[in-house]
Amino acid sequence: MSKGTLFLIPCTIGSSPELVLPSSVFEVVNQIDFYVVENLRSARRFLSSIKISTKIDDLTFYELGKHTQESDIPSFLNPALEGKNIGLISEAGLPAVADPGGKLVAIAHGRGITVKPLTGPSSLMLALMSSGFNGQNFRFRGYIPKERGDRISFLKDMETEATKRGVSQIFMDTPFRNDHVLEDCILHLSPKTFLNISADITLQTELIKTMPVEQWKTQKPPLKKRPTVFIIGRPEYLY
Length: 239
Description:
The protein is α/β, with parallel strands linked by helices.
C-alpha cells in the first residue's frame, strides 16, 4: 500500500482566506479528512472560513500543542501509513515555523512519508521584506526569553550581530508581552540602532515601520494583543 502525504497547510494571519491563499490550498483541503492542528478551535474556524465540502464534524483532528505528550505524536501519522493524506495546520501562518508541528514533519521524513508544503503567508518573511534590512543574511531568533535579565542579554546579543555583522535579527513574543518587549528595546538598545516593528500584517490595522530606537521612544504604538514581528537590523541604505 502506498503511503499518504503530509500537507503543510498555511493558515491566514488575520485576513480573509481568499485574499492571501492561492487556489491550490482550497483544492487540497477538500481532499483531506485527517488533520493535525496546533489549536482545535482555531483550526475548525479556519476550515469553516474556506468553506470546505466535508462537514467539519466528519473530520478527524489530532491536537499538537505545547502540552502534547511527545510519545503521542508518532501515532498522528497512522492515517498516512494507511494511505490517507493528512493536513498540518498551525494556529496562524505557516506550520512548523516557530510551531510544534516541526516534530511531526521530522517523524514523517523518518517514516518515508512525503511532505508537501503549500504556499501561504509568513509574517516573518513579510516583515523582513518590508523592513529595508539585509534580506540575504538574516537570522530568525524565535521567541524572546521571558525573564527580564535574559531578555536584555538576548537583545544586546542581537544588536551586536545586526550592527557589527549586518545580520538582520528577527524575533517575536506572545502578543500580550509586546509592549514590554518594545519598552526593553527602547531602554536597552542604542538610540541609533534601527528597529522594525510589523504588527497586524495583512490586516486593515497593519503597522509596518522601520526607524531608530530613539524615534520609537516618542512614537510608541500600542502592541498588546496584536501579532507582531520585531527586527533589529542595519538598513540597506542610510537615509
